[in-house]
């Protein structure tokens, strides 16, 4: 599954949180575009941002990550 399809499958609230965390957690302006342009791999959303430092926390993002259907 592409990352674009995965992100589109999320509820609007979760999708906004994911995108905001990717933007807020990375220095590169192009990181979101680069991340979204690839296929989902075994790491899921890991690497997009550090889940434990987000407002939602590690457990929340682990559940989102577990929802990925390849």
Task: Please provide a written account of the structure.
This protein has 70 residues and is mainly α. It has one domain (3-66). Helix content is 51%, strand content 0%. The radius of gyration is 11 Å and the shape is globular.
Shape: globular
- State the low-pLDDT regions, or none: none
- Identify the quaternary structure here: single chain
How many angstroms does the end-to-end distance come to?
A: 5 Å
The succession of helices and strands, N to C, reads HHHH
Average pLDDT: 94
- How many domain regions? 1
Q: Measured on Cα atoms, how large is the radius of gyration?
A: 11 Å
Number of helices: 4
- Which strand-content bin applies to the residues? under 5%
Biggest sheet architecture: none
Structural class from helices and strands?
mainly alpha
The amount of helix comes to 40-55%
According to DSSP, the number of beta strands is 0
């Amino acid at each position: 599954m592409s990352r674009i399809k995965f992100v589109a499958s999320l509820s609007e609230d979760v999708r906004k949180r994911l995108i905001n965390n990717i933007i807020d957690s990375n220095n590169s302006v192009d990181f979101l575009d680069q991340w979204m342009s690839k296929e989902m791999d075994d790491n899921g959303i890991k690497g997009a941002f550090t889940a434990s430092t987000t407002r939602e926390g590690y457990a929340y993002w682990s559940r989102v990550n577990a929802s990925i259907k390849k």
